[in-house]
Write a structure and sequence with these properties.
heterodimer, A: Ubiquitin-like (UB roll), DNA polymerase, domain 1, 5 helices, 5 strands, about 15% strand, B: Aldehyde Oxidoreductase, domain 4, Aldehyde Oxidoreductase, domain 4, 20 helices, 30 strands, disordered C terminus, binds FE2/S2 (inorganic) cluster
Chain lengths: ~160, ~800
């Protein structure tokens, strides 16, 4: 039985008929065409599908679409404003933190939740925040550097 | 930060004095694909949607060995929305194939693997072998249809262990492999009399080692989209690292001329050798042909573990090395037993490549090696970053340490003593072009504090034992002369002085577009951002062997350099006319053509290109270069690795707090990209050494590791503090002096950690992975070096 659910995705309101068992990742990717949210393990082990729900990182592969009813979802597509990359996106590009790019959306959104909460994290705090996000390409070195660099830019009020 | 990307803080580039001054090469440019990947805009295969597209799903065997007697498809076919069902009986019109694509003129003087795998298989040869597939209007319907397939299996006896499979009464896995030995292969460059040399050696060190099947764990799973268009052309979005070979394999299976197939390469979420074989393509294409609709097939994580090739594990590597008392290596003898799994794929060559690279790493006059590559009812083995060199170096570098200790020589000194010099014959049987292993050892030891750490007394840290280890390695740049090494590139100038470079590397994350744009721009005298990469479509690109064997920068870069030179010569000829001087008096830098010694006499590249394209009177031309590259030489990359470990003698856990990698990869085209390869290689090497373990239940043949909860890859908190040092001295033959750097990051890691573990607890761990259980077991036994013999002892 489908239910019509309303929720906000990247600032835009959506009204979608969803099945009770339908996962958020499917609604985002297949219904809304937001394929920046990546599917990798499908069972909550890797963080590739991370999105922010009311600012908190959630795994879209484990979240039912119904659970985000009346909530606000931010996916990677909603981060750049008016064609300008978010400081985290810019830092990922600048620091070579992106190799294949498959973990990138999840990494950037997890990093955003961290920095919104803790604008001046230590390297260890960054690693702790990213501990659930697997990257098979970079060894995390440049990802951690990029998050720290973005934190600095954001502290200085840069965008 | 204009133009260049951010500087990395910990790592460093040590430029040799003789390095030429470049303007684009050697700079830390941002990758052209960065913004697309940072914004979610980048399309991977699984992101592609087409009108009317179906979703594919695969049914996999729950048994390690079984005949599919029958599949009743009636219920599945009756389900609304199911558009195609493939069973072993209804795919018989299509040819069987070799997933490793080695049944082609790729391996010089090597073996040919007969095609043996069908689109879906009548006999399941391993747990998870594909036996049926469906395409339906959506994922849920496809899943339901898979559940509705009723399969009648006839169970066959199975064998999982390579040594057991070699026994005379073992169940037979494949008709192509008598006694289950898929291939009996030999080290291709034997030399001297190894038995005599071992008998005469002052010291023989030996050991029996084993390595395991590591999963690539690409973050993106295998995926493919395929459809037959109205004109009868097959359109395929494929992750294949070797796009043109993938197209050829599909043409062969589905009996089509190659130019009826348009194979497109989207962004690929990691590969590391796994997509060097055809993966999701055959089933996706078959479903598209049957349903006459576009089909998207995306593997689940479990599909990836079961249905794709992963690193070839070696059940047994028995190595003996002989030395004179001054530490000179005199002999290496190797016997390997490798586990191939249910199909041959890319697996067999991991033995040959591994022996070739590792046994040729040091100067050694007596060498012999052989390998039995054995078929078993387990998932298939193939190529992963290192391609056997990882396994062989794991053994050789531990034995090197044993020898150093027995002979009272410093581990670094014994390696330097046996290191090859330029002009000697390198591992691949060709003259060694360049080696700066000594620089690697020096830089690495200094940054790590090797000499101080090795000599200072160890603090008492209770159950934690601290140790320091090092290892070296060399790895081929491309695989000449054993594999085909053929690349092509086209370069054309546009009227504003920008250039388009047409090439077909696999965009698997190795920053290859950036590196090729740098090589192209350096030669053309323009900026990296002036070069647009045209790629990813076999309709447009010339033949390209593809991206593997750490070859892309070197070989595709080599073709790029030649094509750019050709286009530049055309451009300079026109500039010479415009400036009324001979072309050899011109040079081009930063978009401007200058008469040498006359800085006032210039014309911009844009002006020259405009003049050529918008010309009347028979002078119109579009400057363009098209060149092939086939290397008949091979320049190995050298590396030195240093690790600090903490072994917890109560839990058996090995922790690596610090790691230093020093690399001689020739001239680093983009040091940031080189660091990225080595830092990422460390993550994979660390997992391979310590935590990752592909487990097959010994009783049932069921694969127990099918996702990241059971198969542990290192996360951000597990990584050591890592420093990467780049020697940065040019190779004489690589484009602007570059050598390969894709695989070296991972090859030296396991022996380096094993040597540090020995230093910590005095126990040799000869089996990978070095799990806590194995560490504890080894500590209890603590019977070190039972196979070492010293003459006269
Ligand atoms: S795909 Fe959701 S956590 Fe891995
Ligand atoms: S960049 Fe490839 S998984 Fe992180």
């Amino acid at each position: 039985m489908k239910t019509v659910a309303t929720f906000t995705v990247n600032g835009l309101p959506h009204e979608i008929a969803v099945e009770p068992h339908q996962l958020l990742i499917e609604v985002l990717r297949e219904h809304l065409g937001l394929t920046g949210t990546k599917h990798s393990c499908g069972v909550g082990n890797c963080g590739a599908c991370t999105v922010l729900v009311d600012g908190t990182p959630e795994l879209a592969c484990l979240t039912l679409a119904m659970e985000v009813r009346d909530k606000s979802v931010l996916t990677i597509e909603g981060l750049a404003k008016e064609g300008l990359l978010h400081p985290l996106q810019q830092a990922f590009v600048d620091y070579g933190a992106i190799q294949c790019g498959y973990c990138t959306p999840g990494m950037i959104l997890t990093g955003k939740a961290l920095l919104d909460d803790n604008p001046d994290p230590t390297e260890h705090e960054v690693r702790e925040a990213l501990a659930g996000n697997i990257c098979r390409c970079t060894g995390y070195v440049k990802i951690v550097e990029a998050v720290l660099a973005a934190a600095e830019v954001m502290r200085k009020g840069g965008n | 930060m204009e133009g260049h990307a951010a500087d990395n803080r910990k790592s460093a580039v040590h430029q040799g004095a003789e390095v030429a001054q470049f303007s684009v090469v050697g700079t830390r440019i941002r990758q052209p694909d960065g913004p697309a990947k940072a914004t979610g805009e980048a399309k991977f295969a699984g992101d592609i949607s087409l009108p009317g597209m179906l979703i594919g799903k695969i049914l996999r065997s729950p048994y390690p060995h079984a005949v599919i007697k029958s599949i009743d498809t009636s219920k599945a076919e009756a389900l609304p929305g199911v558009m195609a069902v493939l069973t072993p009986d209804n795919v018989a019109e299509w040819k069987t194939f070799d997933r490793g694509m080695k049944d082609m003129p790729l391996v010089a003087g090597g073996y040919r693997v007969p095609s043996e795998e069908a689109v879906v298989n009548k006999v399941a040869r391993h747990y998870g072998d594909a036996i049926a597939a469906v395409a339906a209007v959506d994922e849920h319907t496809a899943e339901e249809a898979i559940e509705l397939l009723e399969v009648e299996y006839e169970l066959l006896p199975f064998v999982l262990d390579a040594e057991e499979a070699m026994q005379p009464d073992a169940p037979q896995v494949s008709d192509l492999a008598p006694d289950n030995v898929g291939k009996h292969l030999f080290y291709p460059y034997p030399e001297g009399d190894v038995d005599k040399a071992l008998a005469e050696a002052d010291l023989v060190v030996s050991g029996v080692f084993s390595t395991h099947k590591q999963d690539h764990c690409t973050q993106e799973t295998a995926a493919c989209v395929a459809y037959l268009d109205a004109s009868g052309r097959l359109n395929v979005w494929s992750q294949c690292q070797l796009a043109h070979l993938g197209r050829r394999e599909l043409a062969s299976i589905f009996k089509m001329p190659v130019n009826r197939i348009k194979l497109m390469t989207p962004f690929v979420g990691g590969s590391f050798g796994q997509r060097g074989a055809v993966c999701a393509e055959p089933i996706a294409v078959a479903l598209a042909l049957r349903s006459k609709r576009p089909v998207r097939l995306v593997f689940s994580r479990e599909d990836n573990f079961l249905g794709l090739e992963s690193r070839t594990g070696f059940k047994k590597i028995d190595i003996k090395m002989g030395f004179t008392s001054d530490g000179t290596l005199t002999a290496i003898k190797t016997q390997m037993i490798g586990t191939l799994g249910g199909y041959m794929g890319c697996g067999p060559m991991s033995s040959v490549i591994g022996m070739t690279l590792a046994m040729g790493h040091y100067r050694c006059p007596n060498r012999f090696g052989e390998a039995h590559m054995v078929m078993t009812n387990t998932p298939v083995s193939g190529a992963m970053r290192g391609f056997g060199n990882d396994a062989m170096m794991f053994c050789i570098e531990q034995l090197m340490d044993d020898a150093a200790r027995r002979l009272g020589i410093d581990p670094i000194d014994i390696r330097l003593k046996n290191a090859k010099e330029p002009g000697e014959i390198a591992s691949m049987g060709l003259e060694l072009e360049s080696t700066y292993m000594e620089d690697c050892l020096q830089l690495g030891a200094e940054a790590f504090g090797w000499h101080e750490k090795r000599t200072q007394a160890k603090k008492d840290e209770g159950p934690i034992k601290r140790g320091y280890g090092m290892a070296t390695m060399s790895h081929c740049t491309g695989a000449a002369p054993l594999y085909l090494e053929h690349s092509n590139a086209m370069v054309k100038f546009n009227e504003d002085g920008s250039a388009d470079l047409t090439v077909h590397p696999a965009p698997v994350g190795q920053h290859i577009w950036g590196a090729l744009s740098q090589i192209c721009a350096e030669e053309l005298g323009i900026r990296a951002e002036d070069v647009h990469i045209v790629t990813g479509d076999t309709d447009v690109t010339l033949f390209e062997y593809g991206s593997d064997a750490s070859r892309s920068t070197y070989a595709i870069g080599g073709a790029t350099l030649r094509a750019a030179r050709q286009a530049k010569e055309q451009m300079l000829a026109r500039a010479a006319e415009m400036l009324e001087v001979p072309a050899d008096r011109l040079e081009v830098k930063d978009r401007v053509v200058v008469v040498k010694g006359r800085p006032d006499k210039t014309v911009t590249v844009a002006e020259v290109c405009y003049d050529a394209i918008y010309a009347f009177g028979g002078r119109a031309t579009n400057f363009a270069g098209k060149q092939s590259f086939e290397s008949t030489w091979n320049s190995p990359t050298y590396g030195a690795y240093f690790a600090e470990v903490e072994v917890n003698t109560e839990t058996g856990r090995v922790h690596v707090p610090r790691f230093v990698t020093a690399i001689d990869c020739g001239k680093a085209i983009n040091p940031m990209a080189v660091e990225g390869q080595l830092e990422g290689g460390l993550q994979q090497g660390l997992g391979y050494a310590l935590t990752e373990n592909f487990i097959v239940n010994p009783k049932t043949g069921v694969v127990e590791t099918d996702n990241y909860d059971s198969y542990k890859v290192p996360g951000a908190l597990d990584m050591p503090d890592s420093t990467v040092l780049i020697v940065d001295k040019p190779d004489p033959k690589g484009p602007f002096g570059a050598k390969g750097v894709g695989e070296p990051g991972m090859v030296g890691i396991p022996p380096c950690i094993a040597n540090a573990v020995y230093d910590a607890i005095g126990v040799r761990l000869r089996d990978l992975p070095m799990t806590p259980e194995r560490v504890l077991e080894a500590l209890t036994e603590k019977t070190e070096g039972e196979t070492e013999t010293v003459r006269g002892e």
